[in-house]
Every structure is written in C-alpha cells, then in structure tokens.
Specification:
The protein is mostly helical. The chain contains 10 helices and no strands.
C-alpha cells in the first residue's frame, strides 16, 4: 500500500487509511491475530492515531465491512440501472464478479475472513444480503418482465448464492477456480446465471 504523507485534497482521510490498512491485513491474516499496533504500522501512523478514529480493531473491521457493503450495493444498483430490459443477466452477474475481483482484499474480508468473528459482523452481512437480494430482484424483473414476485425472489436467492460462492472461489483461488482458469470460470458463472434466471433456455 502506497501512502504518501503529503496529502492532496482528493486523497483519502486518515480514517480511510486505517480502514484500507486493516482490510489488507484482515484479508491475509485471521482478524483475531491482527492487533491495533499492526494496523497502525501498516497505515504508517501511531496506535494513538488509530484509537482517535476507532475504539477497537473490531470497530475498524465493522466499518470496513460497512464501507464495502455500501459500495457493493451501489455497484449492483448501477448495473441494474444500465441493464437493457429483456436481455440475459449473465453479463450483469459477471460484471459484478469482476468488480469483486478488483476489490479482492475487501471482498475477502467480507465473505471469508470475517465469518463468525462477531454478532455485529454477521448482522451486517445479513443486512447486506437482504439489500442485495432486493436489487437482484429488480434486475430479474428487468430481464424477465413476466416473472412474478415469488419467481423473482427464488431466482434472486439462487443468483445471490451463486455470486457469493463464485466470489469466495475467486478470492481464495481455490481448486475449482484454478482448474478452470479465470476466463472459463467467469464464462461458467455467466452461463449458470442465465440458466438460474431462465431455466427453460
């Protein structure tokens, strides 16, 4: 992480530096093994400076997850808004998967590292899933105007499960991801998305 202390007006705030530094650490180490001193060192500041913005590393973790969840929801909303009515949704899902890859550290923390860490983290993840499902249902209705509310909900749940599983596979670089290779993996996710959205095709 490159952090110059001569900060222009458009540079992230010190609070954002703390979140970014912690996210990088939480993505590569178990969060319960990361200390505030580790975060401070990564952010090139003192522990006191970290505590000025956050009361604990758990608060840093929660805020980082919240920032990521908001960005993820906004990205899916933008994809839904841009989606052409009546067209397949495979490309929309793979676009979101690509965005996850561009935010690998934050996605790793949100979907993998933070699992089971705290009730707050689980509550935030559940709230995010509900918001993502609502947005996926909007996407489905644009793709399939004839879909009932019940159909959109069931398809949305299937797509959400696929997206979460594919993201975890991608950020971990697991056996499935490595055996297929990136391009084939993304293509398979896109094709499966379309079969989930319209099983008659």
């Amino acid at each position: 992480m490159t952090t110059s202390r001569t900060r222009a007006a458009h540079r992230p705030s010190r609070k954002q530096w703390v979140i970014e530094a912690a996210t990088e650490l939480f993505a590569t180490q178990p969060p319960d093994e990361v200390t505030v001193a580790d975060i401070a060192a990564r952010a090139e500041m003192t522990s006191a400076a970290v505590y000025y913005h956050f009361s604990s590393k758990d608060q840093v973790l929660a805020e980082g997850m919240r920032v990521f969840a908001t960005a993820l929801r906004e990205q899916l909303h933008a994809i839904t808004e841009a989606h052409e009515p009546g067209t397949d949704i495979g490309a929309a899902v793979t676009t979101l998967l690509a965005w996850m890859g561009e935010h690998r550290s934050a996605a790793t923390v949100f979907f993998v590292s933070s699992a089971g860490m705290s009730q707050d983290a689980e509550a935030l993840r559940q709230e995010s899933r509900t918001e993502l499902l609502d947005e996926l249902m909007r996407l489905i209705r644009k793709a399939r105007a004839s879909a009932s509310d019940a159909e959109a909900a069931v398809i949305g749940l299937g797509l959400l499960a696929l997206l979460e599983t594919a993201t975890i596979s991608q950020v971990r670089g697991d056996d499935v991801y490595r055996s297929l290779g990136h391009r084939s993996f993304v293509r398979e996710v896109g094709e499966l998305s379309e079969r989930i959205a319209d099983p008659t095709t």
